[in-house]
Prior knowledge:
By secondary structure, the protein is mainly beta. Helices cover 7% and strands 27% of the residues. It has helices at 2-12, 55-58; strands spanning 18-24, 27-28, 68-71, 75-81, 90-96, 113-119, 139-143, 151-161, 172-183. The model is unreliable at 1-13 (pLDDT under 50).
Amino acid sequence: MKLLTLLALTGAVQAHYRFSKLVVDGKEEAAEWTAIRMTKNYQSNGGVTSVTSPDMRCFQARAGTATATVSAGSELGFVANAAVTHFGPVQFYMAKVPDGADINTWDPAGNVWFKIGSITAVPPLGSSEATWPAYNKKVVNVTIPKAVPSGKYLIRVESIALHQAQSVGGAQMYLSCAQVEVTGGGNGTPGPLVAFPGAYQPNDPGLLWSYYPVPTKYTAPGPAVWTG
């Protein structure tokens, strides 16, 4: 058991990561921070550790500079630099930019976010890639719901690292927000809508992990996925 704990602590000092590029229509952006708002960890690659912090929205260091065009029903990828090097779920949220607002500067505060994807645990549970499909991936993908209305959105990727989450406050969130314009959308009514901070509480079971005993079930935090 001491060996397992030692291995867990060793994993804690591995390289962290950031999500800084998109893959649109199968093509990776040439430069970082093109359609993704630059995050505060652009140098450190560190994560957000307080779910009550406003950094839970987009963790941004500066306003956006560009917007990617994506089709409803298509797949969108987020590139992890250098990879998703900690185990845990990866989740995706969208927030519609209000008509007349500047997508580069709009602050997505309040109940504006809805979940569109969750790459979560596959039983039997453990701390390897067999349980966590996004672990060690260089790109994580989500499908834009076909029924989502056309318009401008922020799409938030969030990797919840559980390697040090043996106590409250130990989970690390690696996240960023992409600026997109959705075309060919539908007439769906996305929901439920949640806020960041607010959607998660520090003691949510999905923000905790035990190496021993290993849990028998795991549910990622946040609302249900809206599929349209």
